[in-house]
Design brief:
heterodimer, A: 112 residues, mainly beta, 11 strands, globular, B: 115 residues
Chain lengths: 112, 115
């Protein structure tokens, strides 16, 4: 049981490049979410999903796309990277009975 | 919309002493969950403690306990016998009882432990 995994751990992009942050969980959780963490801002919700085929926007969705084709995977796509997207990104899944969120190890993204 | 406020950006405590981190929240709901997460320098988010709003008894996990005051919408975290490994960012978070709702985080409190 690996929990929530994220790849890559670190990434440097140039402005305008696109990329996908991968997230997977093996706990069969329906609810998954993506956050970004910036200094002094805490964790802000980007997108979330309540199950395969269903996604919704969070607090800061602009510039990001998500899809949920399977229960296990919830990738986050940056369409055209901007320096404002420099951040640490966390994926999480939620236990359906305890409502506890389990987090991946995070991806540190730098956009030059 | 619910909000979570952590009014102490930074705190420090002497090793072996007790420290309390504050958290208040705003909600119109009567049932919900509250959490404290710890984020050490490794960046990993670790669940410290969880409280269900319908339970009046304060949650406890070893050296960590909460003071849950539902009427005051307050959810403070007490760390007893502080250890160097407790140094981290601590985030308070709220989740509605209704299923499939996002977790709302405070901005965090950075705790330093002085040897």
């Amino acid at each position: 049981n690996a929990g929530v995994t994220q790849t890559p751990k670190f990434q440097v992009l140039k402005t305008g490049q696109s990329m996908t942050l991968q997230c997977a969980q093996d706990m069969n959780h329906e609810y998954m979410s993506w956050y970004r963490q910036d200094p002094g801002m805490g964790l802000r919700l980007i997108h979330y999903s309540v199950g395969a085929g269903i996604t919704d926007q969070g607090e800061v969705p602009n510039g990001y796309n998500v899809s949920r084709s399977t229960t296990e995977d919830f990738p986050l796509r940056l369409l055209s990277a901007a320096p404002s997207q420099t951040s640490v990104y966390f994926c999480a899944s939620t236990h359906p009975e305890t409502d506890t969120q389990y987090f991946g190890p995070g991806t540190r993204l730098t956009v030059l | 919309a619910q909000t979570v406020t952590q009014s102490q950006p930074e705190m420090s405590v002497q090793e072996a002493e007790t420290v309390t981190l504050s958290c208040t929240y705003d909600t119109s709901e009567s049932d919900y969950y509250l959490f404290w997460y710890k984020q050490p320098p490794s960046r990993q988010m670790i669940l410290v403690i969880r409280q269900e709003a319908y339970k009046q008894q304060n949650a406890t996990e070893n050296r960590f306990s909460v003071n849950f005051q539902k009427a005051a919408k307050s959810f403070s975290l007490k760390i007893s016998d502080s250890q160097l490994g407790d140094a981290a960012m601590y985030f308070c978070a709220y989740r509605s009882w209704a299923g499939n709702t996002p977790l709302v985080f405070g901005k965090g409190t950075r705790l330093s432990v002085i040897a």
